[in-house]
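Thread: "does anyone have the structure for this chain?"

Original post by V.I.:
We have the sequence but no experimental structure in hand. Need at least a predicted one for the grant figures.
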Amino acid sequence: MLRSHRGWDAGAAEVGRAWAALHGQTARCQPISRLVCDANRSEDHPRVHAPWLDALGEQDRQALITTYHRPHREAVARECAAALADGPVLHLAVHSFVPELEGRRRPMQVGLLYDPRRPAELSLCRAWRRELARLAAIRVDRNRPYRGWTDGLCTTLRARFASAPYSGVEVELNQGWLPSVAADRVATWLDASLRRALLDAPGAQPS
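Reply from O.Q.:
Generated one for you, tokens below.
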């Protein structure tokens, strides 16, 4: 199970690190499997742990939250809060997905997840989808294969920074496509297309 898509987001860390390196930064990656605790789910989500961990007592489950789940999310929140002191923040989270799930094909190479009720995220992702599809000659979908306004770290931070110029976008990468292209090339496509999109969506321009 650890080697399956349920155990980890194959390729996401490599792309995230390559993308951050373009800006002389270090990507913040959750170092443990989401089967222990899923850092992209709220700690009270019924599936924050893998089902077989239900056999643990409440104290042990809370210990996993305290040790692995909460520190990661709070570290991201602190970094966003610090950056918001200087102006608008665009928080980017990189994940990956399997090309087929429960018999349903997912033909897109990249999905951009956001909250369409937030004008800055909506305008940015419209422009980003167009620029990325053109630059990399790939299929890019918005709010597929998941919806960007359901439970997740970006959703939590939107509420936490409701009065601040925070935008959060999850970038989902197709695991069937990733092996055919180097991580640093994907990162370059994402970065270059994002820069172009920001010119067309000034409301999402980060500091």
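V.I.: this helps a lot. The two ends are 41 Å apart (CA to CA).
O.Q.: and The first strand starts at residue 89 and ends at 97.
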